[in-house]
Design a protein that fits this description.
The structure is a homodimer of 437-residue chains. Chain A is built from 13 helices and 11 strands. Chain A is an alpha/beta fold and 437 residues long.
Amino acid sequence: MSTFREDGGAALDWVASYLDRLREYPVLAQVEPGEIRAALPLAAPERAEPFANVLRDLDGVLMSGITHWQSPRHFAYFATTGSEPAILAELLIAALNQVGILWRASPALQELEEVTVDWLRQLLGLPDGLHGQIEDGASLSTMIALASAREARPESRVVLASEHAHSSVEKAARLLELDLRKVPGDDVFALRVDQLDLAEACAVVATIGTTGPTSIDPVAAIAERCEEEGVWLHVDAAYAGSAAVCPELRGLFSGWERADSIVVNPHKWLLVPQGCSVLWTRRPEEVRNAFSLVPEYLRVAEEVASLSEYTQVLGKRFRALKLWAVLRCYGREGLQAVIREHLRLAALFERWVGEEPGWELCAPRHFSLVCFRHEGSDELNEALLERVNASGDVFLSHTRLDGRYVVRLAIGNARTTEDDVRFAWEVLRREARGVVA
Amino acid sequence: MSTFREDGGAALDWVASYLDRLREYPVLAQVEPGEIRAALPLAAPERAEPFANVLRDLDGVLMSGITHWQSPRHFAYFATTGSEPAILAELLIAALNQVGILWRASPALQELEEVTVDWLRQLLGLPDGLHGQIEDGASLSTMIALASAREARPESRVVLASEHAHSSVEKAARLLELDLRKVPGDDVFALRVDQLDLAEACAVVATIGTTGPTSIDPVAAIAERCEEEGVWLHVDAAYAGSAAVCPELRGLFSGWERADSIVVNPHKWLLVPQGCSVLWTRRPEEVRNAFSLVPEYLRVAEEVASLSEYTQVLGKRFRALKLWAVLRCYGREGLQAVIREHLRLAALFERWVGEEPGWELCAPRHFSLVCFRHEGSDELNEALLERVNASGDVFLSHTRLDGRYVVRLAIGNARTTEDDVRFAWEVLRREARGVVA
């Protein structure tokens, strides 16, 4: 294993050095389509190469095609953090290579998953007794929730969600052959409960922190209606849910405790690298009805329900280990500090935009995302954003609200400082002068 | 980052030492249900803890609940290997934390995925022009294939697969509300083509290397029928597909080059840790039709189809990096050497069983799996297997063939030597004496 120790030392050095120098890279990859592909050989090598070649080509070939999600100046989509404890946890996960197909195949995987999702439930102030599970991403979590809703009410084939709901709701509905009906949002982009027609509905998806403007649907009022009609309520808090770790923000989540299922992605705003979405449900038996089929070769003596009976997936990765590492190494206070700092920075940026002539805010800010635009046409704003991103200095993305092109600045990287946010604002104003000129 | 370097050094030491001592652990976790859960705190800590505590509790609390998939003496289900280059690649993947939601979000992720799956296609002798993609596991790959088949032929709602097909086919059919009809197998557990009624079928799933006895469906004959009727043929070679890296084994795969889609899991027999299933299709446009919906906020200037347009998932992990590391660090020759050695060891074990009075072989061996049983009742064999696994010395699993309880010895760990296989045989005979006595 001396080679492994040597290669591992080199890989670890690479990672430490990368994390040290995150601000030196252009945030958005500065390559053209096909450029990375063209720089790679057409076929795998005949003979084994040393691991050093992998690191060499990671630097020499791949890095120019990396968009730096770890950069403190990544403000696009929802900014994320692969935190240090979780990065090391991924090393452990790969080394242990657990395959969670049933309890005995990894008791530690199954029970740590049950425990960590319950820790997280408590941290977010959710009620006792929810059944939790970790999925790869929210697209799967939401699909599982809607499949369970369909199972619970097979004669009803309609899913209702706000026009601002995430595309994964549409994707899940399509896969499940459910009829997605989009409900209009109001002037603050929240689902209009008066437009909610629950006839034929098996599920409503309410979002706390929509992907475009991070608007908040009136979950309590929707829950009321769903309870009256026996319709499954799924709450998509994939991004914003992590903020509930701060008690002072719980008011924004009012009603989610009444949901039939809830998705929160620790890989978005809770410092866990990609591949950690938590789904809770108060109706685990209906999830199990929708997904359980235990084949002979997995039937064993222990009377323990397998994680795979609650999901589409059979062989689970040991994802709980990275969530566990984060919850341990940050603690409740550490997680709260990250969220609060992000809200402070977003409020600061919001104030700068609001006070600057020629710029306008485009949506109420609830969490760590600011929606804004420069005065002028959509084309001008689009050109502005392309210039900003092409500079490599910072990376932002856009959405469309009330038919207008809107720029989004999403704060969510734990390494982002006030200086980074100020720098983003300077870059935006600099490029705006260029576009206007 | 000095803490990261220190913590990383400790984590790396832990991993190197773990890989050195794999034979010292009981292969099957020796805990009772609930034991790990009971040893963990009821809530997350208030304050940050050092990463050293994670390693401490990994050893002190979790390790007793680990079933050692990395052990050379793990012969259950399909044995797998998280190889050293791939373990380190997972460290890099986590550090880069790419989120492949569209091309610009990580050109390197998308293009390396395209390139590595094409390298693998060539290594396996599959035809040019297949569209490849990496999914988390075969359950998702098969679900994507069947959703595409449904999309291509919406009026036909039947899926046909052998009675020996993997449970994921049934799970996918259920999710997609397709009617799965199981086709009987013949006396060597291969799908009976004469029993294949393609009326109303949108898809047939043929398996090369079934999960129970690793039987091989007559893919060429099935392809012939599917082509005549315009039915989608999905080939499940999740386990066995990796063996096609050896040209002398290609005869076992005859016909798979005519499939509409094929799944092979490098995380099974190709040295990649959990979370790497490759799906190829010759009909990418129908996959895209089934899954593409590009929302406004992901519409950007580049005219590049996103990986997410071909799958249920939106934010992909950088899985290609670990496949790339394996293909580089083993090369074609290295991969062939692993497969050939596993076949040699399986043939050896098969001979020992076949020559030993009181034992019988229960299925033809095509790859690295041997199905066998001791003379006597199912109960005796079940008791035998439970004793073997309870010893912790080796870990095997079972299936049921022709209504009988059958023990499976699956060779698939790159660290397994002839001594390990001989040891397994000794443990089996030792425990058989105990059961009979």
